[in-house]
Amino acid sequence: xxxxxxxxxxxxxxxxxxxxxxxxxxSSSTYLYWYKQExxxxxxxxxxxxxxxxxxxxxxxTVLLNKKDKHLxxxxxxxxxxxxxxxxxxxxxxxxxxKVTFGTGTKLQVIP
Amino acid sequence: xxxxxxxxxxxxxxxxxxxxxxCHQTWNHNNMFWYRxxxxxxxxxxxxxxxxxxxxxxxxxxxYSVSRSNTEDLPLTLESAASSQTSVYFCASSDDRGPNxxxxxxxxxxxxxx
Lengths: 112, 114
What we know:
Chain A has strands spanning about 5, 10-15, 20-25, 30-35, 45-50, 55-60, 60-65, 70-75, 85-95, 95-100, 105-110. By secondary structure, chain A is mainly β. In chain A, the strands form two sheets. In chain A, strands 2, 4, 5, 9, 10 and 11 form a six-stranded mixed β-sheet that branches. In chain A, a hairpin with a 5-residue loop joins strand 4 and strand 5 (about 45-50). Chain A is globular. Chain B is mainly β. Helix content of chain B is about 0%, strand content about 50%. In chain B, the strands form two sheets. In chain B, strands 2, 4, 5, 6, 9, 10 and 11 form a seven-stranded mixed β-sheet that branches. Chain B is globular, with a radius of gyration of 13 Å. Chain B has no helices and eleven strands. The model of chain B has no long low-confidence stretch (mean pLDDT about 95).
């Protein structure tokens, strides 16, 4: 099955850019996602990228996809304290697009 | 507004007891999923359903069961609770419009087995 790996923790200063990285194993992943989980809450979809794209930008968020290396990243520009959360990478797998495999999550701490 | 609700938010139970966690969605989504969240493991899929009377096992289904008698509900039952099932459980749903819509998650149930 699909494996999705992320580093567990990232700390940045307010106003700096954050880059959260993810690697996945299933080359058939056609959709890749970033979700955000705030304390005590469920996950919320932040953005997604289709596998035929290299980059997607949505306001402060930039998603980069390197399909050859199976590497996905999420860049948050001008990081704010409200961005402190756990960020999950996820991808569809060979089981069909309805079934998604989630990564281990990266806890982003923003220091004022 | 449509929503997905989980109950209870917190539950403490004893080893060996049967426990049922509720998930109710008003999105009219066909697809529903149960995940557990544990530190260092992220979210792991327990069971999922693509419609009424359809249920499927995920990667960590041992000790859990689900049934889908209507579109709105997918209750998760722990047949005989074990300490290894102490976790935070999330229910999610999605529709068939397309993968770009992703999942909608409930707020989670924190289960402690003592």
